[in-house]
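I would like you to help me understand the sequence and structure tokens below and explain how sequence relates to structure.
___
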Amino acid sequence: MIAVSQARVYLVTGHTDMRKAIDGLSIMVQAQLEHDPFSGHLFVFCNRQRTIIKILYWDTSGFCLWQKRLEKQSFKWPASKQEVMELDARQLVWLLDGLDPVQVRGHKELKFSTLF
């Protein structure tokens, strides 16, 4: 199993048929997206209306499928020409909280090699 801090988040752009459950989504990850569904990484899907998100991942002994459904609003689902977009954990939280994970920006990351 991959540690949570090492798990990648793959957002499947476009829309997905939310009638798909674990089997249908895992086959989609492997056949269509050409990713390993047993990797421990998170695969994020959304319906056409952007009111339902499903997250599929493998957890050592089986698949887990997490779902969130909004009652009155919609998710800020990013548009991309790529079929899959990689997010970091912070961007996933922003998406689930109703923010656009691509537009939100924090402080610019700084990297130093010496103190003075």
